[in-house]
Design brief:
The structure is a single chain. The chain has a seven-stranded antiparallel β-sheet with strand order 1-2-3-4-5-6-7, with helices on both faces. It is built from three helices and seven strands. It has one domain (2-179). The radius of gyration is 21 Å and the shape is globular. The chain is of the alpha+beta class. It is 36% helix and 34% strand.
Length: 181
């Protein structure tokens, strides 16, 4: 009896992990299509530059009344962040998060460094970037690729935390963009 029970759980767990992966491919195709058609979408921009300590803006890309992509960009002197929220039928399907880290603050130019005696200054070519992807199906995150392109386990406690945060952030962005005149 125990062997049958173990076999049953192995089959079910294999099915669920395969089903989850099958859920991701159509979402990846939708993301690709959105990216390819971005020039055809109407844009709404909300600029926060000068209103917060970090410069930033949100850009929504609409196909008629349907939000396809919400891009949130924030910049600081030490780096930046681009978050792209992809939607299908106004429901979240994927999030790409990119982080940029500068070797020095942007204001520390070669000229400023020379006057202050610094031997290292801001150099755009030394900027590092990392990206992660999260895919959603039916209102839940089904796959998370971290900044090292490693698939993160759903058993990781950060998985549910990130799921909740991204869903909340996506909803805030949607409300912001739909309420913007």
């Amino acid at each position: 009896m125990n062997r049958y029970l173990i076999a049953f759980f192995l089959i079910v767990s294999t099915c669920f992990s395969a089903c989850r992966e099958d859920d991701v491919e159509p979402e990846q195709n939708k993301v690709k299509k959105i990216t390819e058609q971005i020039a055809t979408y109407k844009q709404k921009v909300i600029d926060f530059t000068g209103r917060t300590s970090q410069a930033g803006k949100v850009t929504g890309y609409f196909d008629g009344n349907e939000l396809k992509l919400a891009m949130s960009v924030t910049n600081t002197q030490r780096g930046g962040r681009n978050d792209e929220y992809f939607f299908h039928n106004n429901k979240l399907i994927a999030v790409k998060q990119e982080e940029y880290n500068y070797n020095q603050p942007r204001y520390l130019t070669k000229e400023v460094a020379a006057t202050t005696g610094d031997s290292v200054w801001f150099d755009e070519s030394k900027t590092t970037m990392s990206a992660s992807w999260c895919y959603f199906y039916s209102g839940h995150m089904v796959k998370w690729l971290d900044k090292n392109n490693k698939v993160m386990s759903e058993a990781d406690p950060r998985f549910d935390e990130l799921n909740d945060k991204l869903l909340q952030d996506a909803e805030k962005l949607k409300q912001m963009l739909f309420n913007q005149k």
